[in-house]
Write the structure tokens for this entry.
Amino acid sequence: MRFTRDQVDFWGYAALFSLFLGTFSIFGTLNAVSPGAASGAMLLWLGVTWLGAGLTLLHLRRLPLPGTLLMLLGLMPYGYFAWLYLTGAPMVGAFSYFYKFSSLLLFPVVYLWCQRRSDARIEGTLMLLATVLAVRVLVAFAVPGLFPGRAGNGQAALWDDVTIYERIGPMARVFYPGVALQFFALIVSVERALTRQEGMRLEVARAALFLCALLFTLTRGFLLTAAALVALYVAVRWLTTHVSQRRRVRLLTGLTLLGLGGAVVIATTPAGMAVTRLAEQYAGQERFSLDGTNIDWRAEQAQLAFTLIQTPEQRWLGVGTNVTIPEDIKAPNPWETTGELHYSFHSVQWTFGYVGLNLLIWGGLALPLLSALRWRLRSPLALALLTTLAFIAVIGSYTIVFTNADWNFMLVTCGAFLLSRAQQAEQTHRWFRAPPPTRHSGPLPGTLLEPYD
């Protein structure tokens, strides 16, 4: 069997990106089989990251300012590690930030990939990874016996170590790497169902698959934010695209019939009693209410963490990657500590100070957004990634995001794509706006053109 260069390119990048998105849980599976092999594989992962970033920087003429800022943030854990090593300070947890911020160092690779690949190829690669991940989540939710938890914690043996797998009553909560990727895939499927002439049923089914993958996290903030942003996206696209009247009628009629049919089934069959009993069973569950206890606990955690900042240096550069606080504030256990805050912006500020927080906000969020708005990027993929960037920013305000490699990879992907397309728009604008050379005017500044005879 022979593979074309195009096929190798597609599957090669899909395999590389899957390592950062946790699509196949390679490291979690290796850790269940042999912890030593898992550690070696993760070191190899870091080596691939550095090698890819270094080789790509040699090919790029220039790296956009936001990418430079993100790479500087990705390098800050190495600076702290060197400082702790030289001063002989404890380095507990310092090494883990190499992996948490590894995606930030991959920015040059993703940026060059976005520059040299079409929107269709980029979308296809990400949708492939999202589909595999969604199917894996569906299997874990429907057949929990395939993913038994390890003794002493709620994590599943065949999943990455950032995954939470626990029971909420009779239901399983599957909290997995790649949530931002699932949201992006949901937006793309909604876009296709709205605008494409063929395959609407398939795209509606795919959208349902990605929606289920988000639902299985049993995370209220994810679902509320996703619902609000998807509704906003649909409203914008409904008003700004040339969606045929027939397509609009079909979508509205289909959704209305599904809603009415579900209501009739619940009201006129024994299923209604089952739904009522299920609702009563979950009425007291924190996952299914707007109870603010968990949010209050996160605020108390952040308040405790910031009491450790004592000097101006710590305000600007943070407390460092080796400082931890008790996981349970009200009942501290010296064996259960954390170096991360659930308020992810606060977490970056606490660990890396105002410097790290500004690198994140400007490099990862503000400058890519401003570039997209300045050049009015209107392609469907640009809008989908722009909405995903907004999703990441909102979720990061209240839960752990920017200290996970998979969230950081989607942050890098959104920024790299928007910046690459903004640069292409800028070059096109300059080409159309460049004045024609005049006779006997001499060479243009910065060129090797000779004057006309």
